[in-house]
């Protein structure tokens, strides 16, 4: 089993054990908020809480006790603004994620934050 830490909304870092996914969320949250994600099987838009740190973009159903999914930034190949309507795409070799903000400005803020986190990550040895 792998240990991982998740920062709760109160700022407390909690340690969790999982078998298949390793989450090492830094104490420094870059961006956090509600976005809509299109499911891989159920393609309806579902609201999720997203948390971006220097290594991952994690998303949660309901509370932030255990992530529903984790996008490792080291795996991200491209972040694309789709049609300028508040929808953006995060592409990895394993999956493509379509994510939507409430507004175009919110989506653009997330695109910028993820791209900046990728730039910082790529510049590290």
From TrEMBL:
Domain called PH: residue spans: 28-119
UniProt-listed PROSITE patterns: PH_DOMAIN
InterPro entries: PH-like_dom_sf, PH_domain, PI-Interact_SigTrans_Reg
SMART domains hit by this protein: PH
TM annotation in the entry: none
Annotated protein name in UniProt: Pleckstrin homology domain-containing family A member 1
Organism: Geodia barretti
């Amino acid at each position: 089993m792998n240990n991982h830490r998740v920062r709760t909304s109160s700022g407390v870092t909690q340690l969790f054990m999982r078998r298949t996914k390793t989450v090492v969320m830094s104490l420094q949250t870059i961006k956090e908020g509600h976005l809509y994600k299109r499911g891989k099987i159920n393609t309806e838009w579902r609201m999720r809480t997203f948390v971006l740190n220097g290594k991952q973009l994690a998303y949660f159903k309901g509370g932030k006790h255990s992530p529903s999914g984790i996008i490792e930034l080291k795996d991200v190949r491209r972040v694309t603004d789709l049609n300028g309507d508040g929808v953006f795409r995060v592409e990895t070799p394993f999956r493509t994620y379509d994510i939507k903000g409430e507004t175009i400005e919110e989506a653009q803020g997330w695109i910028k934050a993820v791209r900046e986190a990728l730039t910082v990550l790529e510049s590290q040895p």
